[in-house]
Amino acid sequence: MYKTSGLLLLLVAQAVLAAPQLLQGKVGQAAVVMELDIATDGQVEGRYFYRKHHRDIALSGQRQADGSLQLGENLRYDEQRNDITLRPQNGGWVGAWHGPKASKPVPVSLTPYAAAQWPASSDAALNPVRQRSGYDYLRMVDLPLKPGKRERVQGHTLQWWDEPVSKIRLFRVLDGYPQASLQRINQLLAERQWQEVASYFDCQLGGSRNSGADFEQTVTPHLLSNKLLSVSIFTSYYCGGAHPDFGDNPLTLEVASGKPLQLEDLLWAGKGKPQLARKANGERADYQYEESVLAPWLVNAMTRLHPAQIKPGNEDDCGYSDPQVWQFVSWYATPQGLYLGPSFARVARACEYPAWSVLPWSVVKQHPGARPDLLP
């Protein structure tokens, strides 16, 4: 019993040591928020932002034998440099910033930033951010959204909101639905906007170790019906990896409940009722349905519906007749039907998101998903 308890205490102690430290303080006279992750082997990874500018500065370095930290800023993977030296003091850290542009050392002082000290926000959409990452929350609570343009789309007034630093924008629906539905829909849209803002800053952090980053997003509302709201959120990005990339991560909601929908809620190509095993956190347990059932079915359906675009055996075509490209589709609802975008390996990414790959509602109704009541 003693050995087991000792092992548990050791594991707990290691977890505590490895947990990121959230800190607030100053570099010179400038207020900062910092996150430090000190591994049990002494390796340090972290980031911090100046409250005035909000953008991350990446930190990496090593804990020394005397407990002090030597950290470099935005280091490339083959660089070694000491820009900040910190030593522990009263549960926090003190030291100096002496980066390449410093004419003389600048004092640094940091103290633990407990959740009870965090500023409150009147924006309920920030609550998930607060629960997920105190560091992200403390940045975003100081980034109020700015009202953008208003427009009419499919009988609804949309108010766009812009986050000025990241340039991430998303709309809220002002009318055309019951008030309770509007509140739920707009809450989810607001939460999604902050999620995209967090992705922008994560991308910038990734690019800080390389040649910079780029993150541009286009939001297109495709359907605002009495049952469904569906929007495309298409992002082109470079976050310091080998190549730039792009992708669509649409959002489709049930209007009455504001609940996000899965493809199998609307379309089911399998036998019986839609049943896809999910883990406790909601993630799919496996993708056998997509591989064995959905992809072959979509090839047959799209070949029948769009024969001019799917040309098996043509060396110049994109290979839309290959079931593999239909296993993981990006999808959203339109007035005409379900848009289903195939996915390709990098060398053929230009083949993604063809304009023609729509499954008409008349076909979808012949293969309804778990929520046939939502089909038009």
UniProtKB/TrEMBL annotation:
Keywords, sorted A to Z: Signal
Top-rank lineage group of the source organism: Bacteria
Signal peptide boundaries: 1-18
Protein name: DUF3298 domain-containing protein
Organism, as annotated: Aquitalea magnusonii
